[in-house]
Amino acid sequence: MKRLILAAAMALALPAFAVTPDEVLNDPALEARARELSKELRCLVCRNENIDESNAELAADLRVLVRERLVEGDSNDEVIDYVVNRYGEYVLLKPTTSGANLLLWIAGPAMLLLAGGVGVAYVQRRRKAAPLAEERLSAEEEARLKDILAE
Fold first, then answer.
1. Would the keyword Ubl conjugation be found if you checked this record's keyword annotation (predicted)?
2. pLDDT tens column, 98-148
3. pLDDT tens across 39-90, in order?
4. How does DSSP classify residue 43?
5. What is the pTM of this model?
6. CA neighbours within 13 Å on the CB side: how many for 20?
7. In angstroms, rounded to a whole number, what is the distance separating the alpha carbons of residues 109 and 120?
8. Burial letters for 12-46: b for 16+ Cβ neighbours within 10 Å, e otherwise?
9. DSSP 3-state of 41
10. In terms of Cα–Cα distance, which of 77, 60, 47 is closest to 17?
């Protein structure tokens, strides 16, 4: 049981090991800003993991890049803009809701509303349609059916 608890504690602590000591800045305020920014940037290798938690080499390079930009005096927005210009908007964990992304944000709900409208129109049209007239068998067809069933 103790081993299971120890293994769970180690698994939960793994993201803490992602930032290596040689990456940490001496200035605690800059380091806090770097950590905050790193949590907003996606690791391009791990997909839905931020670079602060990722152990991938590219994530480490991005963490170093963020820290270098902060040391040079860039603001948080300037650092994010620099990384986005270099790697594209995919690097953001929370994409912007402007430009081409606005189309993607609107497309899902718009398609749902369109499908609902088509469904409602179909159901209403089916309700208004005249029922199909039943065709009775002719006398000849009824006689033939009786002969088949009698066999």
1. no
2. 777 788 888 999 999 999 999 999 999 998 887 777 788 889 999 999 999
3. 889 988 887 888 888 888 888 889 999 999 988 988 999 999 999 999 888 8
4. -
5. 0.58
6. 11
7. 16
8. eeeeeebbeeeeebeeeeebebbbebbebbbbbee
9. strand
10. 60
